[in-house]
């Protein structure tokens, strides 16, 4: 009986942990610009490669 109760509690903890982790990831996943997506900057289209300094001059990039 103790083993059955401990298995039930462990599975309950795992399931609640998975549900909360998926909620948190869903909110932040869309905020970051993805690699090799097309972005528009001052009316021109560029391919994002992980950082903005690759495509833009130092004058246009704010630190």
Detailed description of the structure:
- The chain has one helix at 2-28; strands at residues 38-41, 44-47.
- It has 63 residues and is α+β, with helices and mostly antiparallel strands.
- The chain has a domain at 33-58.
- It has a two-stranded antiparallel sheet.
- A hairpin with a 2-residue loop joins strand 1 and strand 2.
- The termini are far apart.
- Keywords: Plasmid, Signal.
- Residues 1-26 form the signal peptide.
Task: Write out key terms for the chains shown.
signal, rod-shaped, plasmid, 63 residues, alpha+beta, 43% helix, two-stranded antiparallel ribbon
Distance between the termini: 61 Å
Helix content: 40-55%
Q: Give the helix/strand class.
A: alpha+beta
> What letter string, H or E per element, gives the SSE order?
HEE
Backbone CA Rg:
22 Å
Tell me about the largest β-sheet: 2 strands, antiparallel
Low-confidence segments: none
Mean pLDDT: 68
């Amino acid at each position: 009986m103790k083993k059955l109760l401990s298995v039930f509690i462990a599975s309950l903890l795992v399931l609640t942990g998975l549900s909360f982790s998926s909620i948190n990831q869903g909110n932040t996943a869309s905020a970051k610009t993805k690699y090799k997506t097309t972005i528009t900057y001052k009316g021109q289209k560029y391919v994002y490669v992980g950082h903005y300094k690759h495509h833009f001059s130092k004058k246009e990039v704010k630190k």
